[in-house]
Every structure is written in C-alpha cells, then in structure tokens.
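agent> step 3/5: call structure_predict on target 'Het-c2 protein' (Dacryopinax primogenitus).
agent> reason: downstream docking stage needs a structural representation; sequence fetched in step 2, passing through unchanged.
tool.input:
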Amino acid sequence: MPTYFDTIAMNFANVEVGPDGIETVQFLQAAEALSNMFTLFNSTAFSVVQSDINGNIKKLRERYDATGEKSRTIEMLVVNEQGEKNRTATQGLLWLNRGLRFTYVGLKHSYDHADSALSESFNISYGETLRAHHSFITRGVFSVAVRAVPHRASLLKSLGEPEDRVLQQLDEWLNALGQLTQRIDKFFETSDYAKGF
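tool.output (status=ok):
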C-alpha cells in the first residue's frame, strides 16, 4: 500500500540544490505537498498554517512565472526582486520558510519523542519558530489550534502503512526539510539582498 510519501509530486529529499541555490519549482512543489499533508490529519488545527503556506507559495509562484530563469532558484528570486519597491515574493519566502520551520520542528520533536503528545511537540515548535512574530491575538488562535492537533498515532496512520516504512520516509523527509529551511534562514541572516525582512 502506498504511503503519503510515495504519492507526492515532489519530496523535499529530492529538491535540487546547486551552486546558485535551491531549485524554485521543485521547492514550491514540495511545499505544496507539505500543505496538502495537513488535510490528512482530519483536523482544522492546521488550517491557519495551511492557508498561510498556500498564500506564500502563490506569491513565489507568481514571481517565478513573471521572471522565469531569473528566479530559477529561491536565492536568485530574492536577488532579482531586491531593487523593487514591493518585495512581495521575498516577504512570501520569509513567511513560507517560517511555516515550514514550524512544521519541521513540531514533527521532528514528535519523531524524536514518541512518548510525547503531538500537541506538546507543536506547542514547543510554536514557541521556537512563530510565536515571536505573532500578535497577541494570533498567539491565542495558535494556542487553541495546537491543542486540537490529532494524536501522534492518528497522524502516523494517516500517512500510511506499514508504520516502520512511514517512519523511515518521514525521517528522510524531515532531514531534507530541516536542511532546506536552515539554508533559507542562513540566507536571510547573511545576505544583503534579504535585509529588512
């Protein structure tokens, strides 16, 4: 029986990273697959994150469609947009990466701590990734959402069977996602092109 990871169009583990950076189209396809994963959880807890991720993917895709080869990689896309008044795609990448990082930290904590509740894993993740960037009202929304996440066993079952295969694929996917989000974080921290965000 195919697992979620067998059926997605692009896995983070297969996103190409070359001398010029992270391949834009592949990265966006993998991010879309992550967003679609939330629907498997049968929970409205992640609807805010899912909507945010989808909105930011749209901003990046529109920029890519408008500029093509100049935005072949995520880094080139940001460089290409630097001199413009409205840097919608750059801001979209920043927030997309924050949403991806939130998901990564939550699922990684759950993967590493099988005895912890999934809600605890995502509560820890929220504190580490998004909380500092949210208003008091948004923090309240997330607090309620995180408490409503499904149990870890339900999450794993929704990703397919057998569980040992799902866990192996999840580990590979998480490692790749973690490396990509770290690379983007570093780009924002060290690049003059990403200053001001």
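agent> step 4/5: record observation. The mean pLDDT is 86.
agent> proceeding.
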